[in-house]
Design brief:
Strand content: under 5%
Radius of gyration: 21 Å
Number of strands: 3
Distance between the termini: 58 Å
CATH topology: Rhopdopsin 7-helix transmembrane proteins
């Protein structure tokens, strides 16, 4: 098959991974397998705890269980293929497999953004409008919000996928351990102007708007707490936001670290190492943050395991 023809399904890409050192491959396999299993187990326990305990059948924990489901899907999109390649001492991934990784990683990363925003809105309504909480955050609205976000992200990711298919020439070596849209555009030898414009627009809409919503929600929350006379009331109200704030800081902090690394160093290998933080470490730590900082989740997990 010609190098410029990428439309055939037999076209292969090569994921260069994190290191070429053969001696490091067993260590990388063990570390990533451990983190993957911990991530699966932790997020699965959160889902089981929320679904099995009727006291957690509230909007806040509905969004949390969805976040855990998305994290399982997110980490399962990239890590298993990486583990297979390390074990088989191979770097190849099929053209269809690469496109599938691009599509689902965009969907799940965007869904993380939206779910964190919905959780911030839930805390805003609970603290700033407690008397109307059950009316505003009803089950129908919560389900509708989640379904609408899935639909938006499926359509946006599909647009990027179709634009990627229009490229007439793509390099075969991707300096990453999974197929990321930004990395594929960097190795493309045809014009990627439209792809990059759409990527920047999507990033602005799907990242900056949710982040703005989160910041606005917490601005309103802090303003309301400052008006409270009771110190105990302030602490109790803000403690319900602690876990969410930790997850938000971890998610956007690691994402910003990846962006700054790729911008400042211009080193694909360092950028791929930084990507480990938000593709593997963040989904692994989220269950621990919520189980350790949240008494309700901790109690539900205790009842589930006992």
């Amino acid at each position: 098959m010609e190098a410029g023809n990428h439309t055939g399904v037999s076209k292969m890409f090569f994921l260069l991974g994190l290191s070429d050192d053969p001696e490091l491959q067993p260590l990388l396999f063990g570390v990533f397998l451990s983190m993957y299993l911990v991530s699966l187990l932790g997020n699965l326990l959160i889902i089981l705890a929320v679904s099995s305990d009727s006291r957690l059948h509230t909007p806040m924990y509905f969004f949390l269980s969805n976040l855990s489901f998305v994290d399982i899907c997110f980490v399962s999109t990239a890590v298993p293929k990486m583990l297979v390649n390390i074990q088989a001492q191979s770097k190849d991934i099929s053209y269809i497999g690469c496109l599938a990784q691009v599509y689902f990683l965009m969907v799940f990363a965007g869904m993380d953004n939206f779910l964190l925003t919905m959780m911030a809105y839930d805390r805003f309504v609970a603290i700033c409008h407690p008397l109307h909480y059950m009316v505003i955050m009803n089950a129908r609205l919560c389900v509708l919000l989640v379904l609408m976000c899935w639909l938006i992200l499926f359509c946006v990711a599909l647009v990027h996928l179709l634009l990627l298919r229009c490229l007439t020439c793509i390099g075969t070596e991707i300096p990453h351990f999974f197929c990321e849209l930004d990395q594929i555009l960097k190795v493309a030898c045809s014009d990627t102007f439209i792809n990059e414009v759409c990527l920047y627009v999507a990033t602005a809409l799907l990242c900056m708007l949710p982040l703005t919503g989160i910041l606005f929600s917490y601005y309103q929350i802090v303003s309301t707490l400052m008006k409270m006379a009771s110190t105990e009331g302030k602490y109790k109200a803000f403690s319900t936001c602690g876990s969410h704030l930790s997850v938000v800081s971890l998610f956007y902090g690691t994402g910003m670290a990846v962006y700054l690394t790729s911008t400042v160093t211009h080193s694909p290998r360092r950028s791929s190492i930084a990507s480990v933080m938000y593709t593997v470490v963040t989904p692994m730590l989220n269950p621990f943050i919520y189980s350790l900082r949240n008494k309700d989740v901790k109690g539900a997990l205790g009842r589930l395991l006992s």
